[in-house]
């Protein structure tokens, strides 16, 4: 009998997994489930996970075998595991590796799609979408694929339910001597951490033909940039790096010059400000997707052929804009590394990341790195704030979309911010939100400079530097701070509004304060009590709950005798005149 009434896991017949939170094995089982399942619901006592085909194939891509997965389910289950579930998991995992893409020895302009299972081969032969990407069958289970269809045939196969293991290899690209320094430019010694080296090795899959493409998943602050540089040092070739914005581009360049022997004339910035194409070139997703009108061609697509790139690094790959997927489908012959804190995409295009960048090759639970001191120990709070009476009536009678905006811009949040800033007056605080009027109010009331998408890059960099060196204690930031900003001293984040139920955004915002600075980090997510915003908060928190974080609930009430007018706030919303 493979079950134990004292265990925390219930495997249901539909494949869903129920995990008891109060069980002493909860953390161990949570980390196990996070490797191959997605958290769907997280009420207080029981968390519900779901195994999807894609989550199982990503687990296979990271090296998980069916035997390991099944043994774990049997080990942790409270009751007997339904045999049909084990059979289904084994069948889905077995699909990874049944369809293989290889180069053709006879024709350099062709690839070969090999299918090792005759039933799958017949299914493929009947599928018009897949066949449209081929030039027909050589024999049963062997199809010729034009070189230019390398990405699109993988997408078509995934829609059919069979992931393609890409073993077609990659162009070498123009060689470039890239070595990591042992000492940084300031003379201090440094070295890659063990898990960073493991991540590079897992991506490279030394000696295997299916290596050198895929995604590395690490928490914010865990050194994904260093993994990128470690990969560059292994591949030693011209490299194109795609980042989320100009500030991120410049941070990549600073890190590369600080930790490798590359010189300034070998590393270029390709942005709206500068158009340098050098052996290592760092650009933005925005530049690649720029066009004059919605019908115009993309202006800067020539960048992909401007050098003989051997490696393309996709920073924050979960934010890869949809148009870049089309570009990525055309450049499958280049090695690809995706870096991210979460594979979650709010647009549902995780399958495109899997097909076109590659499967997950390495990840590590956030809490594991926290326990080992590599990221800051974070405490998360959901702070609930009531609406003032004048707005409560308006909220009740408003349409859904208006309800969301009223709750997000609740003026009572300003009093709560004041209290939290007093609580953390000796800390470095980021106040993060999405509504510009609200952020301008915060900046004015609390003398906290504001950075938005319209802030010039030089001004942005100046404010970040002042924040880092302590001239500024509180910084107000819009969605531009969701990713790729190096703020190593920030240890408090106050989120006052966000993008509906975005799990991705919640993870990125917590990540702003996870870089270890010698003390605890505090993340406050402020929501309007009994509102749609509170409902969205539950979904926002799912990914972080999956990673082991729990939110303490604080019910904020204004101090006796306190009025919003003291802060210059109109109780009906907005600043008073």
Instruction: List low-pLDDT spans.
Output: none
Count of helical stretches = 22
Number of strands: 23
Give the overall silhouette.
globular
Which value, in Å, is the CA radius of gyration? 25 Å
Largest sheet: 7 strands, parallel
Query: Residue share in helices?
Result: 25-40%
Span between termini: 73 Å
Main-sheet strand order equals: 12-13-11-14-15-10-16
Strand portion: 15-25%
- What's the overall average pLDDT, rounded? 88
Structural class: alpha/beta
Care to give the gist of this entry?
The protein is α/β, with parallel strands linked by helices and 577 residues long. The protein contains 22 helices and 23 strands.
Folded structure, characterized:
The chain has 577 residues and is an alpha/beta fold. Helix 3 packs antiparallel against helix 4, helix 7 crosses helix 13 and helix 8 packs across helix 9. The longest helix has 14 residues. It is globular. 45% of the residues are buried.
List the main descriptive attributes of the protein structure presented here.
577 residues, alpha/beta, seven-stranded parallel β-sheet, 22 helices, 23 strands, globular
